[in-house]
Amino acid sequence: MKKVLAVFGTRPEVLDLFDIVPEYDLDLMRSQQTLTDITSRILNGVGKIYDTAQPDVGLVHGDTTTTLAASLAAFYRHLAVGHVEAGLRTGDTWSPWHEELNRRLTDAVSAWHFAPTEQARQNLLNEGASADRIVLAGNSVIDALLEPAERILSDLPNFFLTTTQEYLPFIFLMSRAYLVITDSGGVQEEAPALGKPVLVTRETTERPEAVAAGTARLVGTDIGRIVSAASELLDDEYAYERMAFSTNPYSDGHACERIISALRRKSMSSPPGCRVSHQSRASTLPRPLRRLLLRQFPVEAHEPSRAAAEDIIVPEFVGVEATIPSPTPSVVTVDDIGDTDLRSA
């Protein structure tokens, strides 16, 4: 298959980044031109390219006027149109104007729809597109981000690109690192506990304690600042040790003990927003309590507790209600995916 690339002038500098040389450059961009002007020029210009190159498919991308006009030029010649980034919808023809109409009309004349997401695919199906003409392809902009990064970084002998790591392998890798460069909030807390200086590639942080304590430093996203800060830590042993051995402001490893201790105190039994019953009215977890991972909500155990003391009813986080016996209550935590993890205190 021969690929023919025509450039219309929207973002030609992108081609230089990928070392792409176009076969045709229509040079259509003019000052003070109207949508009618540019549509007319594209219809005529790309139409001539279609006539000369005789392609099998006219491949267009996105939702610009160029996209629509190039699609129409192909359609007028009975040429199959493939639309990359098909199916995006706001539901309002006037917002964004005029992109919403451009993508709707482009999809209407397209033979192939390359949808970036399942939602985009469903939009096309709802509008009557044939399922066998829709390809759930993902978004090519991610390819554009990752491909040059991989090409550039893979040439560095001491730079390793990895997939997303699970928690324990990630902690191991962090423990073996000399320093950490990150924009993660959690890593700003974890790395200092391992004695690793942290350079935060942000202008602000919701964890200012780390910056104040000297375990982390804000370096923003400017390449020069990042390189300068990293070089200082690599070359200046004193600067490195000053950050590595600063006191971690995020506790001493006994936070869970303090939380459990607070939950056991009578003063914590009825904070605002919690329902407290002084006599157990619900089934509670049997003792000894084993670690359970519960995915069915609401949570209810099936064996009554022998505890005669009051029960603590934990607030309803994401629809979870759990009844916990005291004076030896269990601890209920709700993670990001909505599971409830009950652990014996």
UniProtKB/TrEMBL annotation:
The lineage of its organism: Bacteria, Pseudomonadati, Pseudomonadota, Betaproteobacteria, Burkholderiales. The keyword Isomerase applies. It is an enzyme of class 5 (isomerase). InterPro entries: UDP_GlcNAc_Epimerase_2_dom, WecB-like. The gene is wecB_2. Keywords: Isomerase. This is UDP-N-acetylglucosamine 2-epimerase (non-hydrolyzing). Residues 14-153 form the UDP-N-acetylglucosamine 2-epimerase domain. It catalyses: UDP-N-acetyl-alpha-D-glucosamine = UDP-N-acetyl-alpha-D-mannosamine. One of its GO terms (molecular function) is UDP-N-acetylglucosamine 2-epimerase activity. SUPFAM superfamilies: UDP-Glycosyltransferase/glycogen phosphorylase. It comes from Pararobbsia alpina. Its EC number is 5.1.3.14. Pfam families: Epimerase_2. Belongs to the UDP-N-acetylglucosamine 2-epimerase family.
